[in-house]
Model the fold of this input.
Amino acid sequence: MTDAILLQHDGPVATITINRPRARNALDPATAAELGRAIATVEADDAVSVVLLTGAGGRFCAGADLKQLASEGATYQAWAGADGPLSRPCMKPVIAAVEGHAVAGGLGVALWADLRVASETAVFGVFCRRFGVPMSDGTPTRLPRLIGQSRALDMMLTGREVRIDEALAMGLADRRAEAGQALKIARELALGIAQHPPRAMLADRASVFAAFDGVESECLVAEAGRAEVAKQTEAQAGASRFAEGIGRGGSFGGD
Done:
């Protein structure tokens, strides 16, 4: 792996860390591609039973790197869609350890996991709403399946922040941890899951995903297609506003 994506092994548990703390662990295209390669690596490793997904420096992921999008005019591929790194569930159970912000595309990264252990510092939200950047990361498809259509629309339309108590109440987070302890609690949970006989667990997991089929992979492709016009029109201007300092940390007073 590169310095931007770290991959570590601890017995049956592999940990993927997004390591761009200066960019709040935002994903540029190269890092998103590297995340996909890390996922493929742990899927192919028979010694890995459970995957942990986290971010460095007390933050989970701030989504797409809008500064790069603004400065380079970069286009970015859908992280879900037909063949993005989040285009299907991992073949192994995944637990997201969330400290700080899991917002915009970072929310989609957290939703890709089976379970989310969130610390007292966790903040979830569709912060890209004000910048005209669409969610082609799996959020429009996965969020309503997880928390219901009404709550998902609340988050998607308003772009407001959701903190730990509300996240737990709506099922967006599965476990609470003290600040700085999300990865520790997630690792303990992963080790417990790894003790189970794998075939029955994975068969039942697949049946849970299939229960919501209508079919997720097709929904993700359609989601990416719907996002294209907004990417080509509103997203570039919104990224420039973000680069100028508007909306950092969810504050839009300079708008």
Q: What stands out?
A: Residues 5-179+197-210 form a domain with the 2-enoyl-CoA Hydratase; Chain A, domain 1 fold (CATH 3.90.226.10).
